[in-house]
Amino acid sequence: MMDEPQNNKEHDRLNRKIVGLEEKISHALNKKHHLQDQTSTKKNTLAMTRFGKAIRLPAEFSSGILVGFALGWIIDKIFDISPWGIIVFVVIGFCAGISNLLKATGQIKRISDKNQKTIAKSEEKMEE
Amino acid sequence: MASPLEQFTIKPIIPEIGFTNASAFMLLTTGIVFCGFMYASRKRALVPGRAQSVVEMFYGFIFRLLKDVAGEDAVVFFPLIFSLFMYILTANYLGMLPGAFTITSHAIVTFTLACFIIGTVIIYGLWKHGAQFLNLFVPSGLPKILVPFMALIELVSFLSRPVSLCIRLFANMVAGHVALKIFAGFILSLWAAGGVATVLAPFPILLIIAVTALELLVCGLQAFVFTVLSCIYLKDALHPSH
Does ipTM exceed 0.95? Predict the structure, then answer.
């Protein structure tokens, strides 16, 4: 009989300890997530700004022209209209390359983001 | 002196089944990634040891990247993206070892990897969104008369994605390895020239050290860029509105 109250006390003490520890853990986790978010975005932007862009952009542009050339060549072969397919599609490929560049540097994204924001706003209004 | 491009020649090891040094290094890359992960995660400890925390770091890094770039619902593609990143990273660094064959220096290898991603984007996009996926080719807010022309440009732009992924990785790897070989060749040329030039012969080693350091950076960065762009393209498959 003497053991039970003691046991209860012990139990309460342990429970309180566990609750305290849980709070500490969640606090630490929140802090960690916060830090991680900050560092990850920082790292990504750093990698994509200077060196990342330097090795990304040339390929974006040249691939557009290459694909245009390849498409034009195939169309020439199929329809036998050489050299018009290549002439037209290299120009289109050039446009596609420029559009790739604008997308990669975020110039087009900014515009479409604005559009998306206005769309989202109008949708919200519709819901209201 | 051998040509700087000689290091990229494919030599058959077992000609009967077409097994070449490229296939051998592909197998080796897969083996290193697989065995490394099996070894590191063998204990499945709650508090990770050294090897396990390295592996968990890679895992967490790519997981966060995928979630940040492509959104929460892109997590279904995590196995694909993670395997791709580990494969390219390991292949690039394996190629930096002296005498090793760099599989990512072959356009067909990187093109296959890129087609894998674009194929996933097209199939998943069409399956999930159907004809709505084609909205990708029609930028919003255009005058109607421009739509066919812009759609054509966007189509070429879309087709150029795998090509740009392919060119970027393979060109960077080839350029770096060729530069290393050429600088190494300077030592021999200077040595053979005689006179004052012989004294200068050891100096290209400094250049080689610098280029090697740059290459080590480029290897990691290329794998990272390939992964980031794959994530960006996957985002199109998930949310095709322009």
Answer: no
